[in-house]
Every structure is written in structure tokens, then in C-alpha cells.
Amino acid sequence: MEELVARLAKTEAAIQSLVAGQADAVVDPRTGAIVLLREAQQAVQESQARYHRLITHLSAIIFELAPDGTVLFVNDAIETATRYTPAGLMGKSVPDIFFPGEQRCRWDAAYRAVQKGDLTNYEMVLAGKDGTPAVLEVSTANRYKDGALERIIGFAINITARKHAEEKLRQAAVVFERTPNAIMVADSERRVMSVNQAFVRITGYAPEDVIGKNPRFHQSGRQGSGFYQEMWERLEKTGEWQGEIWNRRKNGDIYPAWEHISAVTDKDGHVTNYISVFSDISVIKESEAKLDYLAHHDTLTGAANRSLLAVRLDNAMQRSKRRNERFALLYIDLDRFKSINDMYGHDYGDQVLKIVSERIQSSIREEDMLARIGGDEFVVIMETLAEPHDAALLAEKIIEATSKPIILEGRDLLTSVSLGISVYPDDGTKGEDLINAADAAMYSGKQQGRATYQFSSAELTKRALEYFSLQNQLRHALLAGEFSVHYQPQVSLATGQLVGVEALARWRYPDGPPPEKFIPVAEDIGLIDAIGEWVLQTACTDVAAVREQAHASLRLAVNVSGRQVMRNRIVERVPAILAETHVQAGTLELEITESVLQDARGVETLQELRALGVHLAIDDFGTGYSSLSQLKHMPIDTLKIDQSFVHDLPDNPDSRAIAAAIIGMAHTLDLRVVAEGVETQEQLQFLRDQGCDEAQGHFVSPPLLPADLRRFVQAHRSA
Ligand code: C2E
Ligand code: MG
Ligand code: MG
Which ligand is closest to the CA of 642, given by its number? Predict the structure, then answer.
């Protein structure tokens, strides 16, 4: 202890002499080393400089405040945070540069706590020199002297950027959750990573249902794989895709969505995420459809209006032109509508119109269109018109439907309509022309009486009337025994031998209409099965008798309508009739037309027929669409060259080429060829030279009555 006191005294003395500038060096009392004073001073200076450099270049803010908050010291780092230089802040009080508003109140309170030393770590928002906020995370320590606060020293970190980022993230999270659009984020492997509340609401899927899955789960199946392929191709190419898409909810409902998908890439351009944002647009679609409907329909009757009619007429004309078809326009006018309105009032008249419109609507087919173009005027477009009389049939149907009494408000009202019919392209190739022509026809028809229809051209009216009268007569013809069958011989071109006959139907022979006229009508009214079966039965019976008498083996060819094949009843009737008449299936050949080959069901029926053992021939070959290569796979035995080609033989080079080609190719397919309509020796010679197998025509013999056929057979045998 004494030694310690002595050392202290020595040190004291050394310090005294140093302070007084009396010594250059002192001896370290503890180690006894000599310390040069200048060196010591230098060391102090160096350490100060180091300290200064440190403070200056430190990115943290270091400060010293007076107890009232006046800035006593602050380092350069404050400038980056607040744009104030340290000198600029000197003498300012911290509360003076608080960011205004709520922050200020909060910090006033906080500052009191700082002064007391209760608060040492806190956030503080200052207003920078340019007014922008600077958020600082501050730590302070208080220094006291004699129990009173002397200094507040501390350091602060500028966390403004971090705060901004945090705020942005928070906002993004709010947007993600609150937006009415569904959002789905997937990783680069297209696995769902997160979905928002709107996604859950729209799709019905909970996040746990979908996370980790491929978004395929909500595909509707309405769009083919090509659609999705294009979508991904576009995404890969441009980083974006948007469009309308049908999605499926968890409950299975399909809904239209407007979807925007973007690919998020990293700095190297690799996809890291896919973000898909979509909204359910079913409501929009519905209202669009509703608006569209309202814009194109008459509100009273729900029929199309004039503007939609114009569009549909244009479409119908384009389609018909392309397919080389006709269509009809029916102009319908309610008879005496004006007096109904006058007598019972407009509301009543409206109800009548509504009912009439419903009745017309239920008379037409789905593909036809009804429009209301005036108070009591309607138009029907009837497409795919096989024959003009189809339009007449529809007109009759509409007249019948609208002639039934209307019972309305206790009144029995008798109404009727008058119609005018125009046909595209016969009566015009512009919509307006067709409407006007039908209107004029309707008007001229009305002069002759109500509840009628009239074609725009007299020729068509005549044809339609003929058709209906034919229809009526045909219904009774079979029972009245007005049909007969004639037989036309077919001879072998190689031997000249009679090899077969073709049965041809006759009605009211010799003055009645030819089969070309009555067969299509019989098809239309469903009589073709009955007539066809009667012909088959009669022919089998007749030919069996001829064969017996003449001891000849004759093949019998019978024409079969395409409708009969399509209806399939023929597959049961043929074996039944063969059995009844004791005719071998192998001696019967059924002639069908090319159109049957275009229909898969038709071909099936042909196969069934062939399986019965009967032969099949294609009639009028060359006029339809079938190709020889197609025939390869068909269950047929014979081709009949259409008479239109035979007619121009042998002079017309086209016909020559066609006939030769048919014969040559038929033989490579192992088919027999029969030429029909052979009228001259030259035609016969040409066909024989080409290797055609058989011929039939007036040059050989016209179709014969059964008795004449027997004579022909006998004469032929003896010849
Ligand atoms: P198709 O089967 O091609 O019959 C040949 C037609 O050519 C027959 O007319 C026949 O009388 C006629 N014809 C025969 N030789 C000559 C000739 O040298 N020159 C000319 N210009 N014509 C000749 P048809 O009997 O008036 O029959 C017309 C069409 O009616 C037939 O054509 C056939 O498609 C159909 N048809 C006739 N009978 C029936 C039947 O029973 N059922 C069905 N579904 N159709 C029949
Ligand atoms: Mg025939
Ligand atoms: Mg023919």
C-alpha cells in the first residue's frame, strides 16, 4: 500500500511536469520504461483520426443530443437518410424535424420516455430536408452528471427502404386476398403454390385441394388439347397469354372465365413462376346474350326482327349458292287483323299475334327461322328445300295450324293467314327481292280468297298443285290395282343370249305418269315401301312363271329406292318374298343408286342384303359422287353405265372416254358391266368392242308386258 502511494505520487509529479511543459519524457512508473511525450501525443492524434474516419464513414448514424433534444453532434451518415448535412442540423432540435402528423404526437410522448431513460430502442420517423420521411431505428443511452441528464448519445440505422419494402409486401398481400379476381401462383413445374380467397370463392376448391397440383384440375374439357397447347406456346414465346376459357368448378359446373397468365422469369430469363389471374364472366356472358337477343328479337312474340332476318337471309343465300341448293321464303300475313284490333283493342290484338306466332313457330323445323317484320306480317326462311313443293307443304301446315279457333278472353276467334312463297335463286338473289316477291305473291293470292298460299312464279304454283294432286291419286293407286310391272330384256354382248330382265314399275299404263314422276312422290309420302314390295313380289311371281314355261334361267333385276334401303325393312321383306314365290336368292339382283354408298348405315344394309345371297347393282353409274376406288370396298356385283353416257356414243369423245374407263376399271374390280339405254347398232358395237358385258335398251327391246316377255323369250330361244 505504501509502495502504491509512492508510485501514485511519482506519477502525479510526472503528470504535473508534463502539464507544465517541463519534461519531454516520463518514466512509466509501473514498468520503468521511458515514454517519449511527443510519441504519446502522436498516438493520441492518430487514434483521434482513426476515430474520426470511423465515425465519418460509418453507415450507421451516430449522434449526441442535449437533454432538450438539441443536436450537439451527428455524423455524415445522417445526410443519406435525411439530406441534411451534419452542419445543417447543428443547433436544431430533434422534435423540429419529426415527420408531421401522427408520428409527431407519438414521438413527443416517446421522447419523454427517452429523456427518462425508459426507452432505449425505438423507431423514429424524421422529415427529411425535402419533406420525405426517413425511418430510423434508434438506440440511445443517457449520460447523467450529478444525477441530472447531461447528454443523450446513440446511434441509428436508416430503415426507410426496408419499411417501404415491408409496406409494399403488406399491400400486395392485401391486394392478393381482397381482389375480386381469382389468383393462382404456380412454380416453374406448373404446380400450384398459392391461391387467394377469390379463387376459393369462384372455383369452390380450398387451397389444400389444389396446392401442389397441376392446374389441369379445373379444365372443363370444352376446349381441345390444341387450345391448351397454343396457350402454352404463346406463354413460352411472349411470357403472356390472355383470353376466354371454360373452366370447371369443384362441383362440376362449367363457367366462362377471362384469364390472364404471365410467366415470371429470373434475371437469366428462366421461368420461376406462373401467375394466373381470372374472373368468372358467366354473368357478363348471360347479359351479353340477353342484350343480343333483345337487339335481334321482337319483344312481343320472341320471333326474330328485321335486322336478324337480314343476316339470316344473307347466310342462307351464301350457303345455298355454295351448295347449289334452293331455299324458300314464306311471307305470312294475318287475314283481317286490322278489324280484330279495331273491334277488341290493341292488347287483345297483341295476344292474338302472340298465339299466331307460337303456332307458326311450332309448325316449322328447328333449322327454319321465323321473323316478325311488321304489325301482322311474318316471314319464314325454309332452308334445304329439295323441291318447291316442300315449301307448299309447309304453307299448308301453317294455314292449318293458324286456322284453328283462338279462344281468348271468353271469345272464340276465327283467324287465318295468307302466304306468299318466293324461292332462291328462282325469284331473286337479293334478300329484299325475295321478300318483295313473296309479299306480291301473298297479295295476289289474297285476291282469290283467304287462307291460301301462292308461289311467286306461276310455274312453281302449277308444279306444287300437280304434286299434291299426284299425292292424292297415288294414295289409292295400289289398292285400286293401277300398277303393273314391265320387263326389259338384258342380253350378253359376247353371245347375244338373253341373260336377264329388269322390272320397271308402271302406273295407269300407258297414259299415267312415268316412274321418274311418281317414285319421288311415293318416297315423300311413305308409300315407297309398299309399292317397292309389291313390284318385287309381282316380278318374282311373273319371272318364275316365265322361267318355267320357257325352261330358261333368267336373272331378275329390281329397282330399290334409297329410302327403302335406309329404312332397312327390306332386309326382312326380301327373304320372305323369295320364299313365298320360290325364287332363288342368287337369281335376284337389286339395283340401287350411288347415294346409298355415301351413307354408312346404307352400306350396312347392303351388306345384310348381300349376305342373303342376292346380287347388288349400282344403277345410273357415273351420275353420282362415288369413285371407282371407293367401289372396291362395297358389297356389289354389277355396274350399270348411265344412259346419258350411252346416248352420245360413239361420236362424243367424252362419253367414249367415260364408257371405256368405267368398263376397264369395273373389270379390274371384278364387276360385271351393263350398259343401259342402248338404242343403236353403233352404240352396241362400240360397247362390245370395249368389252362391256351386257346391254339393255330399245335396240334390244323396250320394256315388255309379261305376256310379251314370254313371247320374246321363246323367239329368242328359237332364234
Ligand atoms: P332405271 O332403273 O335406270 O331404268 C331404266 C330406264 O330407262 C327405264 O325408264 C326404261 O324404260 C328406260 N329405257 C330403257 N331402254 C331405253 C332406251 O333405249 N332409251 C331410253 N331413252 N330409255 C330407255 P322407266 O321405266 O321410265 O324408269 C325410270 C326410272 O324409274 C328407273 O330408271 C328407275 O330408277 C325408276 N324405277 C322404275 N321402276 C321402279 C321401281 O319399281 N322401283 C323403284 N324404286 N324405282 C323404279
Ligand atoms: Mg334400274
Ligand atoms: Mg338407270
Answer: 3
